[in-house]
Amino acid sequence: MEKFEIDDAKSVEVYSSFIEKAKDTLITLIENIKSNIKNSEARIKETERDVNENESHREKCEQEIVKMENRIGEIKDAIDNVESTYKKIADAYSSTSKGDTKDLYSKIIEEAKANCEEDVERNRSEIARLNSDIEGVKVDIANYTSTIDELNKDLDDYNLELDKYNETLEYFEKISTKAETDLDEISNEKATSKKTESRVAKSATRKVSKSKETESDGEEDSSSRIIKDKPSILETLKSDTYKTVKEEPKIGEPVFEPKDIEEKVEVDFESSLKQIYDLTGYKPQKESETRKEVNIESDNKSKEDLILESAPSFDFDFGFDKKEEPKKEEKKVYTDNLDSLFSDAPEMEDSNPVIENSPFLDSDFSDWENLLNSTDTQMMNIVEDKKEDNTFIDEMLKPYGTTFNRLSGLTGNAIYHRDGTNSSFVITGKDVEFAINAIDGNDLKSMKKVGPEITILRKIKGLKEGNL
Amino acid sequence: MALEYLYDFGLDSRDLEDIKDNTNETTFSELSLFVGLVSDNIRYMKDFGIENYAQVVVKYPEIFLRDGESFKNIFSKFDKEDLINKVEKNPAVFKKMVDFIDNN
After folding, report:
1. Fewest Cβ atoms closer than 10 Å to its Cβ: which of A50, A333, A355, A356?
2. Gap from B94 CA to chain A (nearest CA, Å)
3. Are A299 and A345 in contact, with CB atoms under 8 Å apart?
4. For residue A96, which phi and psi values (nearest 5 degrees)?
């Protein structure tokens, strides 16, 4: 009991220091996240400024283009004017001139024409230059646009990052608060347990003055009281402390020591061996094999292994001899000690989490002897596991609006191929689990089109055929 | 035979041969495996009132390889009488309808 108290206090200390460390770490993390948030916000501001600058450049470019296009329009008008004027002059001179004057006028017209063409050519080259400028500006605009797009993308990323940081911050702050609460709770519990301890010590001292038996009874009472009085925080400490309690042999209960077992095995064996063989027609060879099977199958039963190991060594390879016979007796010995055997609860509980919360040898296991000796036990476990699997798988399938049973019901029990061959097809929970875990983007698209059930079934089929 | 269950819907061995000839390995194996799913869909089509559903099954069996909900959705998008009339005149109409639903 004292050991339990020390271990418990240590556990509380360890837990407290863990919580404190966790709290410090969380505070550091929170600080880091806050600085990250500041950085993100600064980057967002910079990016927004860049976006604004680029947008104003783009607007200027667009205005420039409009101006240039207007200028091109003006030049085209000018060219039209020049050409029409030239045409009018030429027509006028050609219609009025006769004889020598015609030659003179024709020269004038030629000069005017040359001037016009020169003017037009100049204007056209100006238009070409403006057009190339416009193209250049358009390229600039495209660049600005892509820069703006990239900046906007960056901005989105930064905002996303900021959101994530904020969420993380919120989460860490929650954890930090929880850690503080836990620390407070632990300190309160410490104070409470100290008080209880002192009370127990006092009562124990008082009881020491009485007889030894009374003292031991008193210890038991106080220990049970302490265990009962343990506040909820101990529950939070879970396994370690609990195991410490369980590992301690209870007062008054037989302690399961290998040496004792060995002796008991030998005594039981020697006294009853002959009688058993006579009565049961025992076949040594078979027993040896059975014993081996028991050895293999009972790996989880630590006490059983302990007994088998602690029992006198037998050489199974050399056929039957008298030394092998005690094995059956051994089994008896520790089926007799089954209470203490199964008081080793943690291992049993670890191996079968379904019955973790139910007290052992309660209704389900009260008929332990039959359960252990019949294969029904194994079947029950299998059925239970299967039920559990289905529940788990159904949970996994819930988002897809279906169940394991429904999926199984939609399929036959064999895949037939065009060449006439076939292979059996049975869906298991594992298959569904693998299939769900292997769902990718294409499958989601397929689900949208043909539905989730057939998509999952196809996935399972593919996995089973090794095509995925 | 892998597609024996289709006999229950009035298809005969020639229909099954046609299905075998007109489908690829994947579709054939899926038709043979997803018995419950295909049967449910054929039953729905039959109950909907399309009398020549067997022709649709023979010509376009892959249409029936989809979830019940998805399959029913095809029928809900069109006027019932119009759908029945058109599919009975030409089973290819049903394929076009499925393509339309899938692409929109």
Report:
1. A356
2. 16
3. no
4. -100, -25
Encoded tokens for A129: 């230059």
The answer to whether the beta carbons of residues A403 and A397 sit under 8 Å apart is yes
Taking an 8 Å cut-off on Cβ atoms, the answer to whether B34 and A417 are in contact is no
CB pairs under 8 A between A and B: 69
Q: How far apart are CA A166 and CA A162, in angstroms?
A: 6
Torsion angles phi and psi, residue A432, rounded to 5: -65, -40
Domain spanning A2-196 has what CATH number?
1.10.287.2610
Across the interface, whether the CB atoms of B66 and A418 are under 8 A apart is answered no
User: What pTM was estimated for this model as a whole?
Assistant: 0.36
Q: Which two three-digit tokens encode residue A74?
A: 């003006």
pLDDT tens for each residue of A362-412: 444 445 455 445 444 444 454 445 455 678 888 888 888 888 888 888 888
Q: How confident is the model at residue B30 (pLDDT cuts 50, 70, 90)?
A: very high
Structure-block tokens of residue A358: 């139910």
pLDDT of amino acid B53:
93
Domain boundaries of chain A, sorted by first residue: 2-196, 258-373, 384-465
Closest chain B residue by Cα to residue A426: B33
Residue B58: C-alpha distances to residues A55, A419, B13, B49 (Å): 61, 19, 11, 17
Query: Which residue on chain A is closest to B99 by alpha carbon?
Result: A449
CB atoms A461 and B30 under 8 Å: yes
pLDDT digits (tens, 9 = 90+) for A161-193: 888 888 888 888 888 888 888 888 888 877 887
